[in-house]
């Protein structure tokens, strides 16, 4: 398998030389310069998210993706950011699985192989971007004015994908701070949160602003005049900003922040220096947010499949078996699933929510998230065996145990297994509760925002420390 993977790299290597890339800066940039380039990348991405695609028909398209997943992937419908970071994320996940499963033989510790990995990642992202752009046009999700318009839309999305890839490459190469993918996710979700909290604009047919805080001010104004209806209506609204959503956003953000900072310490010692001991921390939120993203996407795809089943075969709602699978009613406000059908439980927060939906939604998210967490840990190099290998390669061992990967892996297995299940359970429950409570940016988006903010805070402290003590940077091999 390894030789096959190596041959694949050798075959595509001539192509990788033509993949566009950003060179590293000749010398380490100051914090001010890196902040400038980071701000520039954010500005370009925001401009792309408000620039409409040329050649797009004014007919409102129907996108087969939920708003929550769109926010996570940095997607803004009908703009140059239509694909967002989807090509990069999909390419990254597939490539990591192929590398960690040894289907592609790349040593990420070798600088030359690391460069090939980065080039292959960009090449796959460009290919996925092109394929996704063509799929959006041919499936009718992006409706062009004519055939030429369709070609122009594909070209625009391909160029936009290359720009996003290069901006991510620029930031990760040391011109900016952190990761471009994380930065674009953060910008997209925070923009959505800001709109849900502060937008002064009103939706068609409403006199109350869209944002929760302006809506509260307007509702109080009407309440003083004797109209209490508006004040009661903004307490909780399904799929719209509300006071409940605002309070839940703050409360869950603090809970996630607390959980993200919790760690389990594994005592280790250096083999060469007996008596020198310290701890290797394993985060309580061990699997991060990827399993819940897979969970949300799985639930959404099943819901879309059931919706198509209803649309094609059961619009009359006369077949008992199909009614159990997919029963719904088309109204002026959209599709309303029947509470006694499976489609109801695979709809992301339906309008007619009840206690049964809340219970099933939480249990389903928690169970699927744990399953995907276990799968991801074994695919992404996070298993006990992988952690043991890293400890031994670092010249460390666990006191009282032989410095053998198998022995250490057996010791770590109970910790890794427990953290995998607990972290998967936590993110599943928080994401489900966030969706039900109307958290701004969605439950998954909130977890992502907190994680990325912590990463950037830690990175900023590290960079500040390196500027004060330049020798520390050389000592840690960060140059």
From TrEMBL:
Compartments (UniProt record): Membrane
Keyword Membrane: yes
Entry keyword annotation includes Protein transport: yes
Membrane topology reported for the UniProt record: Multi-pass membrane protein
Superkingdom of this protein's organism: Archaea
Keywords: Membrane, Protein transport, Translocation, Transmembrane, Transmembrane helix, Transport
Chief site of localization: membrane
Gene Ontology biological-process annotations: protein transport
TM helices/strands, residue ranges: 35-56, 68-98, 119-137, 143-167, 174-195, 207-224, 236-259, 284-309, 321-346, 358-379, 415-433, 439-459
Classification via InterPro entries: SecY/SEC61-alpha (IPR002208), SecY_CS (IPR030659), SecY_dom_sf (IPR023201)
GO CC annotation terms, alphabetical: membrane
NCBIfam families per record: PRK08568.1-5 (NF006341)
Task performed by this protein: The central subunit of the protein translocation channel SecYEG. Consists of two halves formed by TMs 1-5 and 6-10. These two domains form a lateral gate at the front which open onto the bilayer between TMs 2 and 7, and are clamped together by SecE at the back. The channel is closed by both a pore ring composed of hydrophobic SecY resides and a short helix (helix 2A) on the extracellular side of the membrane which forms a plug. The plug probably moves laterally to allow the channel to open. The ring and the pore may move independently.
Sequence similarity: Belongs to the SecY/SEC61-alpha family.
Official protein name in the record: Protein translocase subunit SecY
UniProt source species: Vulcanisaeta distributa (strain DSM 14429 / JCM 11212 / NBRC 100878 / IC-017)
Lineage of origin: Archaea, Thermoproteota, Thermoprotei, Thermoproteales, Thermoproteaceae
